[in-house]
């Protein structure tokens, strides 16, 4: 280390952020040091007398120097670069930090001579394969992106039905055992302008001498999502994460605050310096309270208010598509809200957007747990754990409760009883294991510690997958590491049978969201055949012609569509399909309830004992009953049972036909 500031950077930043990922850490250009806090502490103690005696430049410039040395290269470039001393800095009043960054830029002389110009390119913010109504979102500087209009994304009919079926199947599963699709930083979406200027700023990357392998192409992505909150809810999301921060005198959706990353500061300052040298009028806002810098390329005051985002959610909840479902709203906020005295604003926005009666609060939970405790005592069972004893979705709906509010910061009594704190474990033992540590089927666990922890153990594991990119920095601000793995459709499907409580991907689309489905297979149940229109002739000849047409149409339907009025689970895929009811198949039969215990609560429902039995459709042996899986773990267990019985499929007792399928035929499950 060359100074006290480098020592502080080495110990407080390099080790803390990198110790889990790299066996060593080093200051660029120096020998590697073991990543051990003890060694860092020893270095600090030995160097204190020397470090304080060495004259130093302003701390900010040193921070930028150290961070820039990791991101950028000061070596001569093969490109035609204007020498740093020849850059047009006269009259620009550059800061000490900006002067440090000049040597990392490569701006051709011809580009310095270009006239200032408005941005003419409109970013296309509609992901491949997504159909929707296209509209423009424009910021206060009239810079625009082409995005999907809120609520207009086309979701296949089979998927809409599969989402509804899967949610209804879990209606009687206690919330701590249910699997609910989430999304990461749900409201940081291009549909509302976040990332609007990414392509503009990425265009400046060519003027920076990056310290990356030859041929690598850094990119900028600051929006977690393309599509609106409304469309995410329509795709089955029931756990939303809202980044709420105090910006410009209001609570806004903002991906900012709560961190100080020197490399990100260096990147943003370098981009602003390029814009300044080229005479461009647009700057990346780095000075707003709570956003230093903003992590999404959008002007700070163009970020939507929290109340506006909550209003969008409330509007969807009031529509038919919500079907009375309960949502979990997780506020990714900061302790600064308490310091600034604006926690009341957060609660006020919630109550302005939603009826107070919708909120399942801490008092409601205490009453619910007390009721379960009385029932347990009467049955001679141990008392329940309040953290993992939560109502079922059906119980919430019956009580008129449709919202569970969770805060990342614990504001104590200031948010009681409306909001639950995340980190005290009171919400189903909420924890957030890293995606890299989580294993899908067949392991279905989280690695780490003395032993692997099952994903489905009665506690909520929220696993996020972030796909933001800041040049060579990944979402965790690690240099040249990338973001893999992530929860794309295949990644979600790998956890669908594991009972992962809240998988929370980025960049959600209908195709990606379909990976979280474990029930109906794609394009199932088979649709009703199209109704062909017969001849429009009149009189007896017309009647005869229509009769012949209908007869031919009936024959065509029988041959082409083969009416599929019954449901099965396919052994190979584990998904549900509609087939002809005339097939000779076994039945999926659930063993009757048993009063086994698992720790402190009755647990016969933890995983069904399935019997795949012969007999007429719907008939099951004594002690069992025809039933369908209620969650992904049961579905995976049933598909294994069907394979173990050497069957290709088994009947499921679902009522309906080619055009309408419900779970009404399933036995009561309590």
Task: Describe this structure as you would to a colleague.
This protein has 670 residues and is of the alpha/beta class. Among the domains are: 4-112, no CATH class; 539-662, no CATH class. The chain contains 18 helices and 27 strands. The strands form nine sheets. Strands 18, 19, 20, 23, 24 and 25 form a six-stranded mixed sheet that branches. The protein has a five-stranded mixed sheet with strand order 8-7-9-10-11, covered by helices on one side. A hairpin with a 2-residue loop joins strand 7 and strand 8 (250-253). Helix 10 runs parallel beside helix 12 (343-353). The radius of gyration is 29 Å and the shape is globular. It is found in: Membrane. This is PLC-like phosphodiesterase. One of its GO terms (cellular component) is membrane. GO terms for molecular function: phosphoric diester hydrolase activity.
């Amino acid at each position: 280390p060359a100074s006290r500031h480098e020592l502080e950077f080495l110990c407080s930043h390099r080790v803390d952020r990198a110790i889990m990922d790299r066996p060593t850490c080093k200051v660029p250009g120096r020998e590697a040091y073991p990543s051990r806090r003890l060694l860092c502490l020893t270095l600090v103690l030995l160097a204190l007398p020397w470090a304080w005696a060495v004259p130093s430049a302003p701390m900010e410039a040193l921070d930028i120097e150290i961070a820039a040395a990791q991101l950028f290269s000061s070596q001569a470039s093969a490109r035609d670069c204007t020498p740093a001393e020849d850059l047009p800095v006269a009259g620009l009043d550059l800061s000490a930090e900006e002067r440090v960054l000049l040597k990392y830029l490569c701006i051709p002389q011809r580009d310095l001579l270009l006239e200032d110009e408005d941005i003419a390119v409109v970013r296309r913010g509609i992901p491949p394969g997504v159909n929707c109504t296209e509209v423009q979102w424009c910021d206060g500087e009239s810079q625009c992106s082409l995005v999907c209009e809120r609520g207009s994304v086309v979701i296949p009919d089979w998927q809409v039905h599969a989402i509804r079926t899967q949610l209804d199947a879990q209606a009687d599963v206690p919330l701590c055992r249910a699997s609910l699709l989430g999304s990461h930083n749900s409201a940081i979406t291009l549909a509302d302008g976040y990332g609007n200027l990414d392509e503009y700023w990425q265009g400046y990357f060519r003027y920076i001498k990056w310290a990356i392998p030859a041929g690598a192409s850094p990119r900028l992505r600051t929006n977690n999502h393309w599509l609106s909150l409304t469309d995410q809810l329509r795709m089955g999301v029931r756990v939303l994460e809202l980044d709420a921060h105090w910006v410009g005198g209001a609570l806004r959706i903002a991906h900012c605050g709560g961190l100080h990353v020197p490399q990100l500061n260096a990147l943003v300052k370098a981009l602003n310096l390029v814009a300044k040298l080229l005479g461009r009028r647009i700057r990346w806002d780095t000075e707003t309270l709570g956003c230093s810098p903003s992590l999404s390329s959008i002007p700070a005051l163009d970020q939507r208010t929290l109340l506006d985002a909550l209003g969008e959610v409330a509007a969807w909840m009031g529509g038919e598509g919500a079907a009375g479902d309960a949502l979990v709203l997780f506020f990714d906020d900061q302790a600064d809200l308490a310091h600034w005295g604006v926690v009341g604003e957060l609660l006020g926005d919630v109550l302005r957007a939603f009826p107070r009666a919708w909120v399942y609060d801490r008092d409601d939970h205490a009453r619910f747990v007390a009721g379960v405790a009385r029932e347990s005592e009467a049955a001679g069972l141990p008392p329940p754990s309040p953290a993992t004893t939560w109502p079922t979705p059906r119980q919430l709906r019956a009580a008129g409760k449709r919202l569970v509010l969770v805060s990342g910061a614990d504001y104590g009594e200031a948010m009681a009883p409306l909001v639950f704190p995340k980190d005290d474990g009171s919400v189903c033992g909420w924890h957030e294991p890293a995606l890299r540590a989580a294993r899908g089927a067949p392991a279905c666990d989280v690695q780490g510690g003395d032993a692997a922890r099952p994903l489905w153990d009665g506690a909520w594991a929220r696993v996020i997958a972030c796909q933001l990119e800041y040049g060579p920095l990944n979402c965790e601000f690690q240099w040249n590491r990338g973001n893999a793995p992530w929860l794309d459709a295949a990644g979600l499907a790998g956890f669908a049978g594991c009972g992962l409580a809240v998988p929370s991907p980025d960049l959600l689309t209908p195709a990606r969201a379909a990976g979280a489905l474990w029930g109906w297979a794609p394009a199932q149940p088979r649709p009703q055949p199209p109704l062909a229109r017969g001849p429009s002739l009149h009189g007896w000849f017309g009647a005869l012609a229509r009769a012949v047409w209908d007869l031919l149409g009936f024959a065509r339907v029988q041959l082409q569509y083969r009416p599929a009025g019954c449901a099965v689970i396919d052994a190979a895929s584990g998904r549900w399909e509609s087939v002809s009811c005339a097939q000779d198949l076994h039945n999926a039969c659930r063993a009757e309830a048993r009063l086994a215990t698992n720790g402190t609560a009755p647990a016969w429902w933890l995983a069904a004992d399935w019997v795949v039995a012969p007999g007429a459709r719907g008939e099951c042996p004594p002690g069992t009953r025809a039933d369908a899986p209620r969650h992904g773990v049961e579905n995976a267990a049933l598909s294994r049972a069907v394979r173990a019985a050497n069957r290709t499929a088994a009947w499921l007792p679902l009522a309906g036909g080619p055009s309408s399928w419900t779970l009404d035929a399933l036995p009561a499950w309590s």
